[in-house]
Amino acid sequence: MDLKKEFHKDMIAIYQNAKKECGYNATRFLQMVASKDGLSVAKSFIQKNQPTDGFATLWEFGRLDLTVEALILSPKYEMLFTEDERNIVKVRLGEYGYLK
Question: pLDDT digit string (tens) for 48-85?
Fold first, then answer.
């Protein structure tokens, strides 16, 4: 399986895990991933000046590990994102106490 397809599959998995573990049903997120692809959605999230509503909800649950941002920083997917994109995500997660 190529890396982009694997990332897409993991994007769906974080939706499923958030629903199962937190009761958070991010329907709009799932629709976006299904209609585009996981990588495109992730890159669009990076470009937003503020975290998404889903990010904020997962922060409230104490589950930033289930965010797109956390998935982006997975070493497995490092080659899919530029250093700048990864740095934006690191700052965002750091501001919410996820990264020390």
Answer: 988 999 999 999 999 999 999 999 999 999 999 999 99
Rounded distance, CA 42 to CA 28, Å?
Answer: 14
Q: Is the pTM of this model over 0.85?
A: yes
| Domain assignment of residue 64, given as a range | 3-95
Answer yes or no: is 20 within a domain.
Answer: yes
Domain count along the chain:
1
Identify whether the C-beta of residue 12 lies closer than 8 Å to the C-beta of residue 30.
yes
Residue 49 inside a domain? The answer is: yes
